[in-house]
Write a structure and sequence with these properties.
ten-stranded antiparallel beta sheet; Anthranilate synthase; 34% strand; 7 helices; 27% helix; six-stranded antiparallel beta sheet; alpha+beta
Length: 361
């Protein structure tokens, strides 16, 4: 059985792919990525059940930049069966919120899942093609292996890119509606209509401060730009960009271990927040809120390309169902219903694709 990864960079017209026979290489720590190259698919929390998967270029066939994908045609009838109803989410939120108010954490991220049953077999490649069409600004990836199953994502968040090295702090979420949907070319009046709450501003500040602290030990010449408002599908986020010089290129795994998971998907302090999430969230995130992308791979324009993205706005594709994942950052002044609505808005990124496939059927 083969394993594969299709991916398309933001604003690009070409797709790339890696295909291998059998299973990718498995790694049991982020730091063990030091000295490796290939396409990486990493989970939120590395374990024997959810290892890092590395598609090695030495044992793969790389396609031409443009990959022709098959069309749709499956008749899909969406029948959502929510694993975590609003009441259950509110109960879990209350537990997370109590820990925040007690001063145990500065920030926590609470995620949830929603299972969507489909009336016919899905075509993952058609879903990938639809995601590329719908979300030109995002990194789109389709990853499949016997060990992890099949995952599709359309994510706006860079974890690490090179030439020059850069990363971002992306936090805070607001839904675009009405005239603000024209935010691609915003007027000054339009920009002024987007007013960020103190909660969103504080959440983004926590992420930016954390990333800057991580970079101080491993990087030099750090330049920070932002925060500013950026769009992802029908949502906007607060974003700060960081450029830097890595002191030792052979320690990419060490840098990634320091960055991942950022407070944007986990919380602060990091390790305590991750353990709290693993125990109390109520389901396994698996590869949601991990990261993926090429690591030190040859490319047409760069000597060696690293372009890793946080695995957000994603779903796990089954034969006749999909599991959608979404989460949001919680602070002491967070309100449960508002956080629920934020996860609903984020899940629309993948639901839109499923609805599009239904319309084609």
């Amino acid at each position: 059985m083969s394993s594969f990864a299709y991916y398309r960079f933001p604003h690009a017209s070409a797709y790339h792919s890696l295909t291998i026979e059998g299973e990718p290489e498995e790694l049991l720590s982020v730091e063990s990525l030091n000295g490796h190259s290939g396409f990486v698919f990493a989970p939120f929390a590395v374990s024997e059940q959810c290892p890092i998967l590395l598609f090695s270029p030495s044992s793969s066939n790389q396609s031409l930049p443009s990959v022709r994908l098959g069309g749709g045609g499956s008749s899909i009838h969406l029948s959502p069966s929510r694993e975590r109803e609003v009441g259950s989410y509110h109960e879990t939120f209350a537990h997370f919120h109590e820990a925040l108010c007690a001063g145990r954490f500065t920030k926590l991220v609470l995620a949830r899942v929603e299972d969507v049953e489909t009336g016919g077999e899905l075509s993952p490649l058609s879903l990938f093609e639809e995601a590329c069409r719908c979300y030109p600004r995002m990194f789109v990836a389709l990853v499949s292996a016997p060990r992890c199953g099949t995952w599709l994502m359309a994510t706006p968040e860079v974890l690490l890119r090179n030439n020059p090295y850069r990363t971002m702090a992306l936090a805070g979420t607001m839904k675009l509606e009405g005239s603000l949907l024209d935010f691609d070319n915003p007027s000054q009046d339009m920009v002024q209509q987007i007013r960020w709450s103190q909660k969103n501003i504080q959440e983004q500040r926590y992420v930016a401060s954390y990333i800057k602290d991580c970079l101080k030990t491993l990087a030099a010449d750090i330049i920070e730009k932002g925060p500013y408002t950026t769009r992802a599908a029908n949502l906007v986020h607060l974003r700060s960009d960081f450029e830097f010089a890595l002191k030792d290129d052979s320690r990419l795994g060490t840098l990634l271990a320091a960055l991942h998971p950022t407070p944007a998907v986990c919380g602060l302090p990091k390790e305590e927040a991750r353990q709290f999430i693993l125990v109390h969230e109520g389901f396994s995130r698996r590869y949601y809120s991990g990261f993926c992308g090429p690591l030190c791979l040859p490319s047409e324009t760069e000597e060696s390309l690293t372009a890793l993205y946080v695995s957000l706005r994603c779903m796990e594709i089954g034969e006749r169902s999909c599991r959608l994942y979404a989460g949001g950052g919680i602070l002491p002044d967070s309100i449960a219903q508002q956080e629920w609505e934020e996860t609903e808005a984020k899940m629309q990124t993948m639901k839109r694709l499923l609805e599009g496939m239904k319309d084609e059927g």
